[in-house]
Amino acid sequence: MLSRKWATGLPAATLLATALLAGLAPAAHAVPDGCTTSVNGSTAESRCTGGTGQHQIAITVLHVNPSVGYVYNVGPWVSPGQVSAATIPPGTIISIRANKR
Q1: How far apart are CA 92 and CA 89, in angstroms?
Q2: Which 8-state DSSP code applies to residue 63?
Q3: With 99 labelled, which of 4, 61, 66, 74 sits at a CA distance of 20 to 30 A?
Q4: In Å, how far are 29, 35, 53, 63, 69 from 47, measured between CA atoms?
């Protein structure tokens, strides 16, 4: 009889513990917003004006030497209000984007 009470009480205790932990979990961070990218000479930059989290400039270039092919370069992860910058390799720019996390 005692084992039957344990068997019915255990799932309820597990659900209660899960609900308490979910209620205490930290809120998810919002990604940066108001992001722009720009090119200044041989440097690409990303700037974000709001939100939280981080952003990073990412560049894809088709290198001038065909045997090299595509070249990728990224800047550092920075907070909104700061600038992430990276050097643009020689060639044709395929894409410039701001990665967010």
Answers
A1: 9
A2: E
A3: 66
A4: 18, 5, 13, 25, 28
Percentage with pLDDT > 70 across the chain: 71
**pLDDT digit string (tens) for 49-79?**
999 999 999 999 999 999 999 999 999 999 9
Q: 19 Cβ partners below 8 Å, 6+ apart?
A: none
The most distant pair of C-alpha atoms in the chain lies apart, rounded to whole Å, by: 80
At residue 22, the 3 state secondary structure works out as: helix
Specify the 3-state DSSP secondary structure of 85: strand
Q: Give the pTM.
A: 0.69
Backbone angles phi, psi at 36, to 5 degrees: -135, 155
Asked if 54 and 93 touch (Cβ cutoff 8 Å), the reply is no
